Each structure stands twice: as structure tokens, then as C-alpha cells.
Amino acid sequence: MAMYSIRDLAGHVGEEVDVRGWMTHFRSSGKIHFMILRDGTGSVQAVIKPANLASQPVGFDTFEQLEQESAMAIRGLVRADQRAPSGVELDVTGMERLSPAPGYPIQPKEHGVDFLMEHRHLWVRSSRQAAILRVRARIIHAIRNFLDDHGFVVADPPILTPAAAEGTTTLFGIDYFGEPAFLSQSGQLYMEALAMALGRVYSFGPTFRAEKSKTRRHLTEFWMVEPEMAFCDFEENLVWQENLLSHIVQDVLAHNRADLIQLERNLQVLEQVVAPFPRITYDDALDRLKSVDMPLEWGEDLGAPHETALAAMFDKPVFLTHFPKGFKAFYMQPDPNRPDVVLAADLLAPEGYGEIIGGSQRIHDLDLLLKRLEENNMDPQDYSWYVDLRRYGTVPHSGFGLGLERVVAWICGLEHVRETIPFARTLNRVWP
Ligand code: 4AD
Ligand code: MG
Fold first, then answer.
1. Which residue owns the Cα nearest ligand 1 atom 5?
2. Do domains 6-99 and 120-419 have the same CATH topology?
3. CATH superfamily for domain 6-99
4. What is the pLDDT of residue 90?
């Protein structure tokens, strides 16, 4: 007898097949029992008429003993059924319980989010969580495809690092054989070195920030894709970002529509996400914020409410550009026409999801970089290898970092980033 994935059953109508998986629901109506079986590729309803079983069920005595999440092997005839989400049902001819699941903690009722996060190792089995993780996987695939197809070389930076890339306030320190070291906040500085070797590069991996912020957008461990391009200016950098993001959204729409529908996502909002995206400067943003009664002083950083208010003025993601250098990173290139602002951009997602990409043109001039390190009270000694890059064939270059979980949260339309990653790490949680 052939073993099939549930996803493939529709191609085997009329055949007797074997499937394996976990029982998610069970109900009886008189002499017929209905079991929903899930195997990770899909779900199917198995219809059990005990009188029709060709062999005695194995591994259990009465149907009442079958608990949700019991592991089952089912043999059955595949029957087409228009009403079934998978298009087929199974008429069971034989069944075996492979292992029981007594007292499975997650029941088909409302559970609080703390309870669910505490049981995340089991919660990932729910159909909604599985849909989110499939969308996440597709987004990763789309990012890699886009960058690989456009001549970017994947080259990953270290995770154990000697110094801060994005400022010292959110570093996780570790003891590296008696020397201080840190978990990487961003691979950017290394990506700049690699861009000088390979032209266009990207990294894709976990980054760590000891963020004390308990918001729906912050994780302490999150995944970032960081492209970096030699001979690329600020303008071209924005074009790469909008093209990458349009590709991601359209690719997910093309391949994961069923998942998005299960998540009750508004697809029309996503369908509009096609490059080019609108751009506004920080100065424009202050004017716009004033007009909605959210005034900021020039030089003040935006908070989440400001980002949400600005994003609500557009129906696509919007670039916010030319920030005061005061609250931005030391490596950002000042605007040659106006040195108090930097050639940096944040890409804000619609619908209150906030900043999903941060990027900039980098300082390529040696003296300017040394000056900016000093102005930021940073020790050039700690960055000597990075400064070296400006000594040997330095050229204008740019790059950006896209936060995977924020993109997943936005595309799936989720309340909180904790559901976007298999095992979220937040201010209060490193378990399970
Ligand atoms: O804006 P950020 O801090 O930029 C950098 O780290 C640059 N060095 C990247 C680069 O140019 N190579 O972070 C980039 C993105 C943010 O836009 C956001 O999407 C995400 O990373 N991010 C977080 N996501 C989840 N939890 C957090 N605590 C995050 N912090 C940043
Ligand atoms: Mg940022």
C-alpha cells in the first residue's frame, strides 16, 4: 500500500492509501465517527464506519480513548468530496494509534496568550500557527531568490563580535574566554568589508538586541537580511529596497493565498504593494505630523505612534528620508547639500506595522568617518579594521537591513511579532 502526504491525496481518488499524522478533532454521530487528521502538508477528514473496517483497529480499545494529538496511521479509500477543503475524504478501512496524547493541554477553546506562549512547543501545531510559519518560509525563499537572481552573493557575518554596530545600549555581552564579546546586533560593518570583495552581498541570519522595550514590534532575537552594495548611492539603495519588498509581497500572494485567507488577511491591501513607493523627508514628516496634532521638535526621533500616523497617510509602504544625524548611526553619510541630515531612510509599512527596513549610504571618506566616531564618543581603536576599509580603495556604498519578523507580521496581518518566529525571544521570555 502506498503512503501519501495529505496534500497529494486529491490526485489519488478511488485508490486505497496509507496516511500518517495527528488527530486534531474527533466526533461521533451514532455509528459513524469523523476524525480530522493533520500531517503538516494538510488536513483531511477520515470517515469511520466500524462495521466496514477490514481489520480490527490497533493500539486502542474504544474510540473514546482517542485524544486530540494522538499519532495515527490510517488506511482508507480516497473519495472526492466537493465540500472538503482538500477536495477529498477518506473512507477508513484500517487504523492504528501509533501513540497516545493524554491530557493534551491546548484544547479547541480560547486560551490566553501567556498560556499559549508557555506551550509554544505545542502551539506551533495549530493550523493558524502553521499558516504563519509557511508564509515566513515563503518570504525567506522570496528574499533569497530575488537577491540571488540579481547577482548578490550570500556571505554571512559572525554572530560573536568584538564591538557594537548599532550603538552600545542594546548589546548582549558574553564572556569570550575571559574577554568581553557581544552577540551581533547587525552584520552591517562586516557586510561593508564583503561588498568591497564581492560587489553585491547579503547576509541572512539572527541578530540580537537587549531591547528593554515591551512592544508588539520588538524581539530580542530576530532575523535580518542585510544587503550591501559597492558603488551604490542613496537613490539606488531605495530602488533595491522597494523592488525587493514588492517581489516578496507579490510572491507570497502568488504562492500562499490559502494561508493568507486562513489568517483573514485583507488581500487588496497587499495587492497594492508594487514599486515605486512614496518618499517623504523628515522635514515633510514633521509638517504632516503637525497637521494631525502630533508635533515634534526638529531633531527629535519619531516614536511608534508617529510612524503609524505617517504610514496611515499612504496606501503603500513609505520611505522616510534625510533624518537629523543626531539620532542616527555614526556610519551614515551626511547629505553633501545639507550636512546636518544623513542619507538614510526607514521604510514604514502600512497599517501601523512601523519600520520594516532601515538603510543608508555609508560614509566612505576616511577623515569624515574618524570625525563621526569621535563625535559619537566611540574609540576608533575598536573599529580599526572597519576604518581600514576607507584606506584601501574606498568607494561610495550603501545597504539596508530588513527585519524578517516585522515583514511577516505585516504580511500576515498579526497583532504581535511573537507569532512570526517559531520560538520568540522577548524581554520576559526565553522559554521554551
Ligand atoms: O534599523 P536597524 O537598527 O538597522 C540596522 O541594524 C542596520 N545596520 C541595517 C543595515 O543597514 N545593514 O534594523 C533594521 C531592521 C528594522 O527596520 C526592523 O525591521 C528590524 O531590523 N528590527 C527589529 N525587528 C524585531 N525586533 C527588534 N528588536 C528589531 N530591531 C530592528
Ligand atoms: Mg532603524
1. 401
2. no
3. Nucleic acid-binding proteins (2.40.50.140)
4. 98
Which residues have CB under 6 Å of ligand 1?
165-166, 186, 188, 209, 211, 218-219, 222, 224, 226, 355-359, 399-401, 403, 405-406, 417
User: Burial letters for 158-183: b for 16+ Cβ neighbours within 10 Å, e otherwise?
Assistant: eeebebbbbeeebbeeeeeeeeebbb
Q: What is the pLDDT of residues 50-108, one digit of tens each?
A: 998 999 999 999 998 899 999 999 999 999 999 998 899 999 999 999 999 999 999 98
Q: What is the mean pLDDT of the chain?
A: 96
- The single-letter DSSP state of residue 325 is G
For residue 401, the ligand closest to its alpha carbon is 1
Q: Is 130 exposed, middle or buried (0-12, 13-18, 19+ CB in 10 A)?
A: middle
Percent of the chain with pLDDT over 90: 94
The stretch 217-233 carries a mean pLDDT of 98
SS3 content of the chain, % helix, strand, coil (to 5): 35, 30, 35
Q: Where are the domains of the chain?
A: 6-99, 120-419
CA distance linking residue 150 with residue 430, whole number of Å: 37
Superfamily classification of domain 120-419:
Bira Bifunctional Protein; Domain 2 (3.30.930.10)
Q: Residue 235: what residue type? A: E
Mutate to test the pocket of ligand 1, among 244, 398, 406 (most ligand atoms within 8 A of CB): 406
342-371 pLDDT, tens per residue? 999 999 999 999 999 999 999 999 999 999
Q: How far apart are CA 414 and CA 407, in angstroms?
A: 10
0.90 cut: is pTM over it?
yes
Please report the sign of the dihedral spanned by the C-alpha atoms of residue 122, residue 128, residue 132, residue 137: positive
Give dist(CA 117, CA 88) in Å, integer: 34
